[in-house]
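[audit] Reproducing an earlier prediction to check determinism. Same input, same settings, fresh worker. If the tokens differ from the archived copy the diff job will pick it up downstream; this log only records the rerun itself.
[audit] input (280 residues):
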Amino acid sequence: MDAEKFKAAQEEYKKGDYRLAARGFLESTEPGTPISNGAAYHMAGNSFMRLKRYEDAITVYEHALKDDTYLRRASVEGNLANAYLKAGEYDTAISHYQAALEETDIRNPHKCYQGMGAALMEQGLYEQAAIAYRRSALDQSNPEPGKSLVNLGLCLMSLHRPADAIEAYKAALGTETYNNPGRALSNLGIAYFETQEWSRAIRAFEEAATLHGYKLSPSASALLEQARREFEAAGAVEASDEDATSVDSVNSINLDDASFDDDFTEEVISETDVPVEPSA
């Protein structure tokens, strides 16, 4: 690998010129052999991911894996899985997430479980997706388990298990690092609506909109209005004094059996979740 060309490409990558960076990384490779080219192909793949050129990313990540001397195989496998996920090849994506998890240099298992959950959800395999998201949430390397917990809640709603979804959303709200409480509260309101806990559904929807400035979807807004009508028709019986957004632990969520609605917002890992530049 040409170290000078690689370094120049890194500078373009840092500046955000991913098209020029991709070209530079590819030009830095040594022709005729995969050996010593792993870092260049890895970074070329990252550049293509930023450009949303997923098929090109797949090609160069595959080349990176041919370099047996390159030590960041878990990152390459995980990014290759991300590319297949974005390309809609879900089974292949899952196989590469599993391969990444088996590598000894794996740094962020939660990203693989999160991506695996997304691929499984796309295929309607909600029970398996719920297991993947739960593993992501429990992974000690996960700095923001709330995302995984919200997605776990979506799976449980799809499995017609709103009571368990409520616990997942409450757990997400209980994490200090989750930065979209409005989304979790809106989803929590939908789950409470399904369990006919009208006052709690109203409170969750209203807190999402008023406390966090979250714009409710048209269907969530319709559910809020219907919950208000149901609450009034029931004689405005107040909910219990128990905190409607507290949960002891994600470990308390039962996943022995598992069910879906379509009106939920899903968070998945994006193409921007690629690792920082590897050293040459």
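[audit] rerun output stored. Observation attached for the diff report: DSSP finds 13 helices and no strands in the chain.
[audit] end
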